[in-house]
Specification:
Blueprint: H1 13-16, H2 20-30, E1 37-41, H3 69-82, E2 86-90, H4 98-107, E3 111-115, E4 128-133, H5 137-144, H6 149-156, E5 163-169, H7 176-186, E6 191-195, H8 210-226, H9 235-242, H10 247-251, H11 266-269, E7 272-273, H12 298-304, H13 309-312, H14 316-333
Parallel strand pairs: 1-2, 1-7, 2-3, 3-4, 4-5, 5-6
């Protein structure tokens, strides 16, 4: 990676975007600033049971499941009226209730579904589909208790442009990432990276240490360099998600669980609905029951980092790094959005969290 330029002068925003490449990327990403997200647990059932699962932690797993399609249609219509333009469907496992996922798509056309990929979702639900990968098939069998996961996931979503594989780095599967990325590259499928972020009270072997964070950073850099057509990530994504400090310490999390303000942004608009169609502001978070101090989750970062635009608008290099992050986030989450070449190839330090 190239050394990052040092800037001594103060830049106006117009001076930063005077660079044609930066201006072009800025104009590309700003068209999506209309997106307003909320998340929805579609079912409390799952066909695998993984160690360290976010869903089966805390109280949300005990919410009663509403399976009435009309009730969900009414909820999504009310959400659209409230200004929500992007849905994230999760669970437990949303592919077990495809009719409810279809109800969401009928009302709100932008969204993503978090799935383990073992049961393919109908093609007419044209959302991004995030397929969770926790290592190669041997590691997945040990951690998720399911055989041949990657082989089945790749077969279910072969030649499906909705799919992006989300590789969650734990402290124990770092070396598996190369094998998985090579397989996906060979099959012309795409991958992005996530970091295991411990659920509250979890002290098991998957939790990261300073040494595993450093090792993960190196592997991510190597794979991003070697497989630029396969890996949807940027150097700044790597910095933000493998930093010794978690996302909240680096950027201040704007989700309601950590943000008491209801004035603007996620603090006002974001809700995390459970399977009984209720939500609790005190628990509302993109990945509920995560230990906030340990949160480096990719879903959290897509809002936590992107919400800090003005903090990054200090010089061309820092703003380019932020644009790369937003460009990555949109390519991972928004159907049809194509990621561009990263503008910033150096590892930029995050700006101070005091601005």
């Amino acid at each position: 990676m190239a050394a990052r330029p040092e800037y001594k002068q103060e830049y106006t925003f117009s001076a930063i975007i005077a660079d044609p490449a930066i201006r072009e990327r800025w104009e590309k990403v700003r068209k999506y600033f209309f997106l307003r997200e909320s998340t929805y647990d579609m079912t409390n059932r799952c066909n695998v049971r993984c160690e360290g699962c976010y869903y089966y932690n805390g109280e949300k797993q005990f919410a009663q499941e509403v399976r009435d399609e009309q009730a969900w249609l009414q909820l999504f219509a009310a959400e659209k009226e409230r200004g929500i333009t992007f849905v994230v469907l999760a669970g437990a496992e949303p592919s077990l209730v495809p009719e409810l996922c279809a109800a969401a798509y009928k009302v709100i056309p932008h969204g993503a579904i978090a799935s383990n990929g073992l049961k393919p979702l109908p093609k007419e639900i044209d959302y991004r589909i995030h397929i969770s990968v926790w290592g190669n098939d041997q590691t997945s069998l040990a951690v998720r208790k399911a055989p041949d996961m990657l082989a089945r996931q790749m077969a279910n979503y072969a030649d499906d442009p909705r799919a992006v594989f989300v590789y969650t780095f734990t402290s124990e599967n770092i070396n598996d990432a190369r094998e998985v990325t090579e397989l996906l590259a060979k099959n012309k499928q795409q991958i992005t990276f996530n970091m295991f972020s411990a659920p509250v009270g979890y002290n098991g072997p998957l939790r990261h240490s300073a040494a595993s964070l450093e090792k993960t950073r190196k592997v991510m850099l190597d794979l991003l360099t070697e497989y630029p057509e396969t890996v949807l990530f940027s150097p700044y994504n790597i910095v933000a998600h493998t930093h010794e400090q978690g996302l909240h310490a680096l950027f201040s999390c704007p989700y309601p669980r950590m943000n008491p303000s209801t004035d603007i942004g996620l603090g006002r608009s974001f809700r995390q609905y459970r399977t009984d169609l209720q939500w609790d502001r005190e628990a509302a978070c993109c990945v509920p029951d995560t230990d906030c101090a340990d949160c480096r989750h990719y879903a959290a970062g897509s809002a936590v980092v992107t919400a800090r635009m003005y903090r990054h608008a200090t010089d061309p290099s820092t703003f380019s790094a932020w644009l790369d992050y937003v460009d990555t986030y949109l390519s991972v989450w928004v159907r049809g959005y194509e990621k561009g070449t990263n503008l910033c190839t150096s590892l930029s330090n995050p700006p101070s969290n005091t601005q």
